[in-house]
Amino acid sequence: MPRLSPSTLDYYSKCPCFSFKPFDMDGSAAEEGITMHKAFETGDDAELGEEQRRRVEQTRELVEAQKTAYLGWSDSDPVNFRMHHEEKMKTSFGLSGRMDRCYVNLKDRKALVFDSKYGRGGLIAEAADSFQMKNYFDIVMLRYPGLLDEVRCVLGSPRTNEVSMHDYKAEDWPRVKAEIDAVIQSVENPFKHP
After folding, report:
1. Which strand ranges, in their side-by-side order, compose the sheet holding 150-157?
2. Which residues contact 116 (CB under 8 A, 6 or more apart)?
């Protein structure tokens, strides 16, 4: 049985028989993307070149702009404003995922989920169609039951200058869970076809 996670469901939604091909990480674009992602997570840009540093900073600026404009973020109110960075959390279906950034404004009943894609290929799905973002929406709603009216999901690919966002409403949650479940069922079906 394949290992399902929020980040792999976009691939499985296209083909329930999908499998990742092994690749060599030495000097590859994947290694570069991992290094940039690590810098974004930790704030330590020491291993980055000038262009890489500029792209990571571009991601940070996008996150800060969304925190301010969409959430009205306040660092001085830890009761109403909560952060989750790279925390391992589970979906309604028991899939484990780590959101790059999640910010919650309980006072305004909104949350912001941000995921960065540092690969050279850009986004593989728009935020509204991304099963990774649907799973992250599910995680946030599960973590804060009855406390949120809206969750904004943002995908950013600084290497290709792509940004995609989608606002989910609380009433979308049952539909989104049904969509996620349909993909999981198709992958777990012993009679599945490519």
Report:
1. 81-84, 101-105, 110-116, 150-157, 162-169
2. 37, 40, 59, 100, 155, 156, 157, 158
Q: How far is CA 147 from CA 44, 94, 109, 136, 154, in A?
A: 34, 21, 6, 16, 20
What's residue 193's pLDDT? 82
Token pair of 123, please?
Answer: 């986004």
Q: What is the per-residue pLDDT for 118?
A: 87
- The answer to whether 133 and 113 have CB atoms below 8 angstroms apart is yes
- The runs of H, that is alpha helices, within the chain are 9-14, 29-42, 50-66, 131-143, 173-188
H/E element, 83: strand 81-84
Half-sphere exposure of 143 (CA within 13 A, CB side): 24
Asked if the model's pLDDT at residue 25 lies above 70, the reply is no
**pLDDT of residue 22 exceeding 90:** no
